[in-house]
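Q: I'm building a small set of examples for a reading group on sequence design. Run inverse folding on the following structure and report the sequence directly after it, with nothing in between.
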């Protein structure tokens, strides 16, 4: 796919950058600076949609001709949203809660066009089942530092985080942080729509 105008990723996530490169897209990276606060009374799909739009719109406000990509990924278990851990103890608590259970990973993304100010958002959900983890391996993983910048305190693509996952149902890349197939088709349709307007 060839982008019809400049693409900007409103995220410094190394995983999202790597996944976008898999599609052969050329893009710039500009952090949005949007704070990822959990909002009471907001469901997970609405939450990731709101945050992805906020991130895309924030970066787009300084652009004149571009498509800005905003995204947000969360882990949900027992109706609770797990974002990035605040500290080591928070990471241990999250992994302990996920141990031996199934949780759902949501990624919302928004494509925001300038100068038209039109946008489209989409959400992907994937169920992930962890095997039973023991306290020692949770501590070892957290001490590696790897979980500290990841929703739910784990990365399915990590050397060690990968062995926590027993099975998944849905898009693997969504769990990494960006649902590639859904993004590809959404971007293609969005660009066609922009050409018609």
């Amino acid at each position: 796919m060839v982008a019809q105008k400049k693409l900007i990723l409103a995220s410094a996530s190394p995983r999202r950058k790597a996944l976008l490169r898999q599609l052969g897209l050329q893009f710039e990276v500009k952090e949005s600076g949007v704070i990822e606060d959990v909002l009471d009374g907001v469901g997970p799909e609405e939450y990731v949609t709101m945050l992805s739009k906020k991130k895309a719109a924030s970066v787009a406000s300084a652009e004149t001709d571009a498509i800005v990509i905003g995204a947000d990924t969360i882990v949900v278990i027992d109706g609770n949203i797990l974002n990035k851990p605040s500290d080591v103890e928070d990471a241990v608590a999250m992994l302990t809660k996920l141990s031996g259970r199934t949780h759902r990973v949501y990624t919302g993304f928004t494509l925001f066009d300038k100068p038209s100010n039109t946008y489209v958002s989409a959400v992907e959900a994937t169920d992930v089942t962890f095997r039973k983890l023991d306290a020692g391996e949770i501590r070892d993983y957290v001490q590696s530092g790897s979980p500290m910048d990841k929703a739910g305190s784990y990365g399915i693509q990590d050397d060690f985080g990968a062995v926590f996952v027993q099975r998944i149902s849905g898009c693997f890349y969504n769990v990494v942080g960006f649902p590639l197939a859904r993004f590809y088709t959404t971007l293609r349709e969005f660009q066609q729509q922009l050409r018609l307007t």
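The helical segments are 14-22, 44-60, 88-98, 135-143, 172-176, 180-196.
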